[in-house]
Amino acid sequence: MKKKDIIEFEVDKMEFGGTTVSQLGNREIHMKGGISGQKVKAAVKKVRSGKADVKMLEILEKSTLETQTPCKHFNECGGCTILSIPYEKQLEIKEKQVMDLFLKQDLFGFQFQGIQGSPQDKLYRNKMEYTFGDEVKDGPLTVGLHKKGRHIDILTVDGCFLVDQDFVKVLTSTANYFNEKELPYYRGINHKGYLRNLVVRKGVNTNELMVNIVTSSQIDFDMTEYKEMLLELDLEADLVSILHTINDGLADAVQCDELRILHGRDYINEELLGLKFTISPFSFFQTNTKGAEMLYTMAREFVGDHSDKVVFDLYSGTGTIGQVMAGAAKKVYGIELIEEAVVAANNNAKLNNLNNCEFIAGDVTKTVKNLKEKPDLIIVDPPRPGVHKDAIRDIAGFNSNEIIYISCNPKTLVLDLVEFKNYGYEVEKVKCMDMFPNTPHVETVVKIVKK
Question: Which one, out of 53, 108, 265, 402, has a CA that is 20 to 30 A from the CA of 283?
């Protein structure tokens, strides 16, 4: 076997994060994507001793696991890679994948409480970030998601199962409107063009909708007609915010050089477990609202009685979990790197009349050392790369009896738990929460205790 060879094989094992491992002769085949039991054709990208990395080219035969009817974009869109598997089976697969990661790191002896399914396995997303482009070179304008394995081709995903009809109506009407205007989309390869992104956000429990059209400043286009078109749509939600964001950044990410309010206000309201939150166009908020309520309830149950305790909420984002814990706590300190998120967290705490919450802007690794008060309980909810080793050292240095670790990436979670073990912490409880049905991702809540 050598680079660029075309091979055919049956997928053996799905690993967490959407990768698969198969055995072909005496060689272990690693591939992004795939479902156990599928027969696939793939191109060899890299060959190592006893291993090979390949890229899937074609599914030759479906797996016997694939008994669900997926959306019309399945296997073209890069989103819901396991949509064809029944939801209960998806949960079994994710549960086993997480347990395998724990066992691989010799983490035993804890109470494993299984996996909690999402209240909705479809129509659950409260935010979608779409990209302008075309599906084929020089084809008509499209607005949607990237094709699987492609950096350029964009599908208008009007049959997506993850969002409700309000998202679909905004998406398709936007695509039709700007097709008629014949405005160029922004091309990252030469940084020329105008239309960049369409971001739609919804307050699931408040029924408020935000539409944010993101462009460069290269064309001076009057968005009044576009705004009026959106306001005339027959939507279930209340369209309270229409925004125009100017973004001239070179990165392929939504950032704001200038924000123009076309209609209403620059935020939507949401409610979570009896608390109120204002969500700006760039705020982080869990994309599965009903799932988030279950996730934070799960974390609160792991904590148990925390009355009169000092709580550290690290990587606190907009302060959601800290405020959920604040009702019974003596004091909650939150640390978050992104200043806008900290401002939002403090504003949300005021909105909820929580006088015992203080959110601080700073790098957890550095800021945590400067906190004078000692915590009775620490909550960590880090981004995908996990907790820096220096931060683990400092967090462990507080000698808190309990730490609740909420993870969106069990691969880095288990590595961090091994580090915490070196400082005398043992895993007591683990439970998974499926926040992202039909995708390879899952959240995990862990309680570790000082021995």
Answer: 402
Residues with a catalytic annotation lie at 408
The CATH classification number of 127-272 equals 2.40.50.1070
Partnered with residue 200 across adjacent β-strands are 128, 211
Fold of 89-120+288-450: Rossmann fold (3.40.50)
Q: Strand order of the sheet with strand 195-203?
A: 154-155, 141-146, 127-134, 195-203, 208-215, 238-246, 258-264
- Does the pLDDT of residue 212 top 90, yes or no? yes
pLDDT (tens digit per residue) in 117-141: 999 999 999 999 999 999 988 889 9
Span 6-61 CATH architecture: Beta Barrel (2.40)
Alpha-helix residue ranges (DSSP H) falling in 216-354: 224-231, 289-303, 320-326, 339-351
Say which residue, 86 or 317, is predicted with more confidence: 86
**Binding site for S-adenosyl-L-methionine: which residues?**
286, 315, 336, 381
Average pLDDT, the chain: 95
